Amino acid sequence: MSTAEEISAHSDRPDRSPTHQSEQPARFGSTARILHWAMAVSIVAMLFLGALLVGSLGNYDRVLVLHQTVGVIVVVLAVVRIGNRLRAAPPPQLPSIGRPERLVAGVSEALMYVLFVAQPLVGWALASASGIPIRLVGGILLPALVPENAPLYHLLREVHTVLAYALLVVFTAHMCAVLAHTLVLRDRLLSRMTFQLRRGGPD
């Protein structure tokens, strides 16, 4: 393995250095943390733009392009994140997280990954069934996943709405759980996914 490959592989491993063990829990690797926050911002943007579509009038086409673009970004990030998760094992769970909570966290995490991929793909199929060109920022056109079909469009619209609410609920529950650990239990759970600046150099 070359020096560059060794550095890259090391950056994806959980940080378990002695200094960090004495100050805070072992953190996720740099790649996992970058993907985590990129996903978080993209999910919030996708849900926000989706909500704007419901009440937008004059800016509907522009908002739709942004919504579809962010949806594609979410799918790409989700696939990359899943691949990184399979390649680099996460750090061990904190002692403050009991077995029942670990089970719930595992199920909710798996559900989030499914929704990260399913929601944008259903939206893509929804736009295809409506007959509206799927246009991204920069004028990029995506191929239709399904032929134009009015009954299918109405069905996919309902599914897309249900998945959006499900994603919102799971995403909110995840944030509430992290805040509870951070503000109530004070077990530094959030620090596993944060970037901290050191006096001796970058994170």
UniProtKB/TrEMBL annotation:
It is a multi-pass membrane protein. InterPro entries: Cyt_b561_bac/Ni-Hgenase (IPR011577), Cytochrome_b561_oxidase (IPR052168), Di-haem_cyt_TM (IPR016174). Residues 7-18 have a biased composition (Basic and acidic residues). Keywords: Cell membrane, Electron transport, Heme, Iron, Membrane, Metal-binding, Transmembrane, Transmembrane helix, Transport. The keyword Repeat does not apply. It is found in: Cell membrane. One of its GO terms (biological process) is respiratory electron transport chain. Residues 1-26 are annotated as: Disordered. It comes from the Bacteria. The keyword Transmembrane helix applies. Residues 27-194 form the Cytochrome b561 bacterial/Ni-hydrogenase domain. The chain crosses the membrane at residues 34-57, 63-82, 162-185. It holds the Pfam family Ni_hydr_CYTB. SUPFAM superfamilies: Transmembrane di-heme cytochromes. GO terms for cellular component: plasma membrane. GO terms for molecular function: electron transfer activity; heme binding; metal ion binding. Belongs to the cytochrome b561 family. This is Cytochrome b. It comes from Nocardia vermiculata. The lineage of its organism: Bacteria, Bacillati, Actinomycetota, Actinomycetes, Mycobacteriales.
